[in-house]
Amino acid sequence: VEPSENVIFLISGGGSALVCAPPEGISLDEKLALHKFLLRSGASIEEMNTVRKHVSVIKGGRLAAASKGKNTSLVISDVVGDDPAFIASGLTVQDTTKPEDALVILNKYGFSDTSCIRNYLNQALPLPKVSGEYKLVANAQSAIDAAVEKAKAAGWDTEIISYTERGEAQTVAKRHAEIALEYKKRGKPVLLFSGGELTVTLGDSQGEGGPNQEYLMALARALNGEIGISALAADTDGVDGSKDVAGAYIDENTLAMALQENLDIDELLN
Q: I need a labelling partner for 53 at 20 to 30 A (CA). Which of 64, 117, 215, 253 fits?
């Protein structure tokens, strides 16, 4: 690309999982192992993306640096707070983190001492200086606001719990169950909306799914078959494009159906 040419980047949240280009010295399998470790560790999306951008040849602004043209980024955010450096690991924006920051995060969650990724980070180069225009075209708040307008047009009362929900999926689910039960006591149908970025700490367990399915299973348990309450959690659960995991749906029959199938919901959550 010539310096005078206009380059438009279309970027959405999920880019970190979909755009994988490990640097020389790190194999794809090693990077996949790192990604799986971070997903299961309970690390925040900001922590995960800090590590990812230092083990990539395009993240942390490196894609924009490679273009050498006049860069414009149009971005859909999936990150609470919409920090450009964390959406898709900041492919086209200036970043202030250092390789040492990634090592601190790996230490915090107990990543393998023998991994070649540690060796790479110990001698990794700083992220490049980049420039260009940046425009946020959609985020959780705009999605929720659009859904609220649709719901109101269909005659629903609506309430927004939060645009920026964070925390462990099971903890948030218990609180949301209490909120839903409180609204049910009022006796009037209502749609409750919430957006954000939940986490799940798996440790050594070999479960499947992700924050959305964890949240809904814990919500079903907390609601305990309460009649008239249903819930949908929709997202890619951190494994964009590679697995059929995009959230789930529960209603008053979920626990009864689990019992019919001899499924122990507590065992599954564990």
A: 215
